[in-house]
Amino acid sequence: MKAAVWHDNKDIRLEDVPTPESGPGEMLVKVHSCGICGSDVVEWYRRPRAPLVLGHEIGAEIVSVGEQVEKYKSGDRVFVAPKVPCLRCDYCRDGHYPVCPNVKERLPGGFAEYILVPPPLVERGTYVLPDRMTFDQSTFIEPLACVVRAQKLARVAPGRTVLVMGAGISGLLHVKLAKAKGCRVVATDVSRRRLELAEKYGADATFDAAENEAGLFAAFLTQKAETVILCTSAIPAIEQAWRCADKGGSIVFFAVPGPEKHVTFPVNYFWTREMRILTSYYCGPPDIVEAMDLIGSGAISVDEMITHRLPLKDTATGFRLVMDGRESIKVIIKPHEESEA
Fold this sequence. Notes:
By secondary structure, the chain is α/β, with parallel strands linked by helices. The chain contains twelve helices and 15 strands.
């Protein structure tokens, strides 16, 4: 079979690799769609494990199941989570699924024609897609689940003011979800095109983060944001976030700068205002279920966010589109299609 092997963002090679066979407790799935996540192009995060096959936002069809697999059958259309918590440790019992220390196996990369799903993911990380959900739509399940979890942690509720800083794919999903919850939503970015999309997807106001800081702050003269969600790693955005969060509010780091960059935290400013700094990067099983319901019901529409569909041989092109960001929002790799759909 073919797989796109990642060495770095400028070195992605289409290679022939053995097609795996399903053993006891395993499943072989055919990847129909796999989204390129913003984290896929973060080299400092991925490079220590290179070379590897990336891709964790998948829509797939079961080809074969091994012995002991009873819940699923050949032909089932599924989403498979990138990793699964044990559901038994203290962290899981407290709802901190992303930090479960007992994660042993992860989903092999989805930028390949087939994936061998390991037993823990078969048991606790496989979800049958509703008939009405397409494979392309299923690539939004994991990213939307991460957004769902972040907003839960921040206690986003109807009537609140939410500031989303960075209007890439994750920022736009935050806009959509916050609006679906009945919030007042403001979005910032340095891209006019992305700001236009934020407005199209429901943002009540948008501001150029680089050129319109005065206007941004004027929007909050009567009420700052109860929740600020950082979907950009830009240091200036982080410094803006401190000033835009209201007393008793929360700042969520949904994206972070590289480890070589240092963030100055104004602890005295926060100390007298009862403000919270939160981090959120992944999701848990309840978030995945909620994300599937949101997409399947149409409460969160996603089809209009897809800008590119590319065959597996053009995975490197897809990475360039995501890194550049000017033309793309959601880029999906279609391993079994020969040309762009």
